[in-house]
Amino acid sequence: MMSGFPSDLEIARAARIRPIPEIAAAAGINADAVELYGRFKAKIDPARLDAPPPAGKVVLVSAMSPTPAGEGKSTTTVGLADSLARAGHKVMIALREPSLGPVLGMKGGATGGGLSQVLPMDEINLHFTGDFHAITSANNALMALVDNHIYQGNALNIDPRRMTFKRVLDMNDRALREVVIGLGGPSQGVPRQDGFDITVASEIMAIFCLASDLADLRGRLGRITFGYSYDRAPVTVADLGVQGALTLLLKEAIKPNLVQTIAGTPALVHGGPFANIAHGCNSLIATQTARRLADIVVTEAGFGADLGAEKFMDIKARTAGLAPSAVVVVATVRALKMQGGMAKDQLTRLDLAALEAGVPNLRRHLRNVEKFGVTPIVAINKFGLDSQEELDWLLAWCAAEGVHAAVADVWGRGGGGDGGDELAALVARVVAGPNSFRHLYPLELSVEDKIRTIVQEIYGADGVDFSVPALKRLADIERNGWSGLPVCMAKTQYSFTDDASRLGAPKGFTIHVRDLLPKTGAGFIVALTGAVMTMPGLPAVPAALRMDVDDAGNPVGLT
Questions:
Q1: Is 167 a catalytic residue?
Q2: Residues 462-486: pLDDT tens digits?
Q3: Tens digit of pLDDT for each residue in 16-66?
Q4: CB 3.0-4.6 Å disulfide test: which of 27, 227, 251, 402 passes with 163?
């Protein structure tokens, strides 16, 4: 936030928000497909939607490697969509839902910022329509049913020591990473070491975001492998016979949520897997629904292009059979200078040398996007204290690299203003051009070779080192016939390496895979690298400390 400028929450509260039936009607959504959640939110039932099959073109918004200086990917996504709509295109946004862990922790909200926000920002950032609670309930119901099955005689011969599925909570809570359950005697169950993941890392979240419809959701839930028997055979939800119950818990949540931007652009906000520990994309159902309603769908994938964008290309796009028409890579002068070694408290100082030292990070992300056969476009998200000299230098660098680029001032001049017009014009031109999209690797490669391809081609690593447990898991994957699945890398978002402190575009490193987790319902193999955690912790000064409500019940301190 710039000094003297209202906060994101103040801007959101001052905005004129239209009743959601008006937004639905303007988007071409027939009334009987709209299920209201108050005045400004609704769920859309795709089965009742009176619209053609998906045909809209997809623009993926990604970014350089994130830094504490901030990049503004969601802000750029919203501002770009508003600017495309301003230019006369029929546009819809497809975004992920925020997780309470980051909202109350370090990141804050995930609805954009300034004049480029989706509304109602406070409700979206908190409980929204209850989707995450439904996913948490389905996940934990499964584990309650599993432990009850073991207690009631264990007809499936489940080995409690080889459980691979965990309970979840939509909160950053490091105390729950490792727990012991079942204490208190025989009537309390079988004691065992266990742990919690954050809800966004749950396989059920991934399934929720990759299912094409209710029947596919049920089938994927049934294919979840939650553990192994005493003779080391996989045991699935279908073996337990509870996929129907889990589907029942999710039948309303699976419908996409309709909201709006400050400028009135329709947005589907649905699903929310993290990109550092999961696949980082909003629900496939929401994206495909948007493609039925709009000519251009602007969506995003989490963190840098090495994580969310790669997973969008190799997991989501492969599952959906879609090809992105353009990829926007968000960069900021501030973040590039930080990648170049500049301290955060010095970022407002003009320093072309630091900027030059940081652009190799952006270059690697751009070249990686090109490996998928898609044209990258750099969106230089303008901050209020950026110098024109630095902005001009970065534009000239992009031109020398042969890359489309535009400065986007959508935080302060969004909401239907002209701050994103130049970026929108570039995107529209690229979207209308030819496309030669391809995946990074064929599914026929072994899991080991898929991982090696990603770490060498995308991260720039020399190779990969597998721990002894990971090597054993590779053998299990091959034996159980799962080697044809794509790979979902779990890696720090701050670096191309698995060491968060190595910024820029490092060379001469190895990625360390400590374990592999087959997600047979979601349909991918998670590779855990370095010290990445599936249950994050809160920072020393959580964002929750500045949050409250006023005497009228209005939120305070949300960002």
A1: no
A2: 999 999 999 999 999 999 999 999 9
A3: 999 999 999 999 999 999 999 999 999 999 999 999 999 999 999 999 999
A4: 227
CB 527 within 8 Å of CB 516: yes
Q: What is the mean pLDDT of residues 351-380?
A: 97
Q: How far apart are CA 6 and CA 13, in angstroms?
A: 11
Q: Are 195 and 166 in contact (CB under 8 A)?
A: yes
Q: How many CA atoms lie within 13 A of 277 on its CB side?
A: 17
Query: Chain-centre distance of CA 528, in angstroms?
Result: 17
Cis bond before residue 191 (omega within 30° of 0): no
Residue carrying structure tokens 């350089």: 64
What confidence tens digit (pLDDT) does each residue in 314-338 have? 999 999 999 999 999 999 999 999 9
73 is catalytic: yes
Question: Is 303 marked active-site?
Answer: yes
Known catalytic membership, residue 311? no
- Is 75 known to be catalytic? yes
| Residues with Cβ within 8 Å of residue 88, at least 6 apart in sequence | none
Report the pLDDT value the prediction gives residue 1, as an integer from 0 to 100.
45
Within 359-423, strands assigned E span 376-381, 404-408
Q: Give every CB contact of residue 503 below 8 A, 6+ residues apart in sequence.
A: 65, 67, 338, 339, 341, 361, 494, 495
**Residue of 18, 107, 318, 502 with catalytic role:** 107
Instruction: Measure CA of the first residue to CA of the last residue in the chain; give whole Å.
Output: 10
Given strand 510-519, what is the order of strands in its sheet?
A: 463-466, 510-519, 524-529, 487-490
Count of all residues that appear for the chain in the document = 559
pLDDT-based confidence at residue 4 (cuts at 50, 70, 90) = low
